[in-house]
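Predict the 3D structure for this chain.
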Amino acid sequence: MRDLSFKPVCIPALCLLLVAATLQASPDRDEEIAHLLDFVASSGCVFVRNGDRHSPQDAVKHIRKKADYFEDDIDSAEQFIELSASKSTMSRKPYTIECPGQPEAASRDWLLQELQKFRQQQALGQESSSVNLSQDSAGDTGT
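Done. Predicted structure below.
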């Protein structure tokens, strides 16, 4: 008869696999963060940090620097926004955005709104490519 008792050696191996899987960056997360950085850079909006106004390019540099610092804590685009682009780590003051023709907005809300739009566009793009593939397959006569 086989010994089916629990082997304690399995726990460390399982834990190691779970940790390794968690540490790998999500392609979606990386794509979303890259999109948000591009969005800030091309926005034409002024980024206000601790009362000082910064160009979009300077804002991206600052956000990247903070993201690098918090890299181990960022598992999602939302965490990226929260830790790197929403408030001063020192003063705790929220960052704001001034876009031409629009009221001043909290950078956190502004970026979360853009993230939601991006995800919707990605979902629509995947749906339309699935529809195209289905239509291509349906129209295939095998000739």
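Helices lie at 10-23, 27-41, 56-69, 77-84, 107-138.
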